[in-house]
Structure formats: C-alpha cells, structure tokens
Amino acid sequence: MLSKRKSFPHLISKGFLTSHSVGTTMAKLSVEIAGLKLDNPFILASGIWGETGATLARALRAGAGAVITKSIGMEPRPGHANPTIVELDTGLLNAMGLPNPGIAAYGDEVREALKPGKPVIGSIFGADEREFVHLAKRMEGYGVNALELNLSCPNAKGYGSQIGQSPELTKKITAAVKGAVGIPVFPKLTPNVASIAELAKAAEDGGADGICAINTLKGMAIDLELARPILANKTGGYSGPGIKPVGLCAVFEIFKAVKIPLIGMGGISCGTDAAEYLMAGASALQVGTAVLVRREKTFTTLSRELDAFLRSHKYGSANELVGRAHGSVGAPAEAAKGGS
Ligand code: DHB
After folding, report:
1. Which residue lies with its CA nearest to atom 8 of ligand 1?
2. Nearest CA to ligand 1 atom 6
3. How high is the pLDDT of residue 12?
4. Within a domain: residue 3?
5. Residue 328, in any domain of the structure
6. CATH code at 77?
7. Is the peptide bond before 241 cis (omega within 30 degrees of 0)?
8. Would you say the CB of residue 153 lies under 6 angstroms from ligand 1?
9. What pLDDT, in 10s, does the model give residues 166-195?
10. How many domains, in total, are found in the chain?
C-alpha cells in the first residue's frame, strides 16, 4: 500500500542504531503486563494485519511479543467507502470505519492466532456496556489472553471516541466488562480530549488492569484540485511518526495519574522511540504504522535497536527504563559520574 518513494523517508533513515549485540547475548527485553509474559515489549497494534488469524500468527512468528486483533463488533461491517487512507510525509490518515467480520465469525481466527503460543489480545468495540460485555465474553471464550476495549476510534458514529471521550462511560464500560470476564482488560484511550489522564483515572476506577494510549488523533486532508476532503469520511485518524510527541506526553501524564501499567503507542518506529516511551512510563509498547513500512522485519529490528540502546547506555533490561523520566535517578552513566 505504501510506495517506497513516499514511505516516510525520515523514518527509514533515522534510528538504525548499529547493534552492539553481535556475538553476545541480548539485554533482557522480556516484560510482564497484568500477568501477561511477553518475550519483548513490542505488540502488533489493532487494525494492522489483524483481520485474519494467519496474519496475526505471522506477526508473532516474525518476532512480535504479542498481537492485538482488529476491533471486532456485534455484526459484520463493510467499513467506509474509499478513499480510506491518505499517506502523509509524517504518517498516515485512515478512516476505515471499523470493517470487521463480526464476533460470530471470528473464533477460527483467534484459534489460528494462538498457534505460535504467544499472547493474543482481542480488541472489541460496542455501542454500550451491554454490547461490550457480550463481545468480551465471546472473545474470552475463543481463548484470547486479554482484551483491549476500543473506546477511541475517531471514525465511526456511536462507537469508539464518541463513547470514550466521556470519563463516566469509560468507567462504566470498563467495570461492566471486568465484572463479566476473568482475563485482563485494557481500555484504549483517545487523545482527542482535554485530559487523557482523567480518562485513564476513570478506567482505573472501573477496574482496568492496564491502559493503552494513545489511539489516533482526529485529522483531515484536502484535495486542492477538487476542493474537497480526500477521505470519503472527510475526517480520519492520524498515526505514525508525527504523533510521537503527543503519545509520549499522554503516557507521561497518565503514568503520574494511575497505578496500573501502561501500554504506550503513537509513532514508535525505531528502538530509541521505544526507549523514550518506556522512560515516559510505558511497560509495553504497540507498533502500528511502522509495520506497514518495515513489514516482517519490524519486530526483530525494533528489538535489536532497543537492545543496542540498552547496552550502549549500560541498562540491564527494558524494565529498568520504565518511568525513568519521572525520577531523579537519571541514566546509569550519569549516576556512575555522581550525577542525579
Ligand atoms: C479505525 C481507525 C482508527 O484510526 C482507529 O484508531 C481505530 C479504528 C477504523 O476506522 O476502523
């Protein structure tokens, strides 16, 4: 889908740290979040390769620590009319419109995705807590290891951010799902609000086991010749390298507001992006748009680059970075010099 010519040249050229790990063992990249054990922090984000079990399994075999399914709803949905994607210099705009086969048809896909033996997180979207509970129970029955609640898609009337912009509804839906299933529940929050930290607190109050932040920013692009919006839906969700500062800031602020662990995302495309998100407070990370550029190599490349950063800066593990930017400890090399 993305041409080589326009595939975010700065993304390709930046961050390819040379690996310090040739011939030695990797730094400890494994992480644990709400009891889920990941052999590295990099999780395939929802909506990227997630409509079939085969592509989810492919991401796991290519080195993803875990995968998240496409968001699945009550009934099959075709999604929005084309154009649904606009490629920008700094990322992507998309308005897919939550296309999915419906929960009744998704069991075989989950079973296929589970074959590599790594965590599979089921993403669900509903119009209210009754739908969310139904979807959560079905997904749990299919065998997923955790749930992501899509309270943040900016593209579908009556779903996603239209519900998730309300702290009250975020808490209510989270609490209803938590009361209905035994697996960890991770609400995915929208940045299109005045305070994402307030939403995170509401999710925590509803019993969430962790928070995913951020989903896409609402945006648009205009066709100058036609003098109309390019996307058939007019507006879409903006993702990719351009939103990294927004995602980092959200994770930093949420980390201060809640005690539950965070899964950070938004523009992660190299190992040092990952290190920044861990330092801001994320315990695990999601990768979406970068997978469309780097494809199968995404996960091994990110792991290798994060390992190189950890080694060159004298960290023993990815966990040692989590929340580091909030404290006075600083980096190991600085501490060794007696800095604080
Ligand atoms: C969809 C788009 C998004 O940007 C998102 O974050 C979630 C869902 C969609 O339109 O399907």
Report:
1. 153
2. 153
3. 40
4. no
5. yes
6. 3.20.20.70
7. no
8. yes
9. 999 999 999 999 999 999 999 999 999 999
10. 1
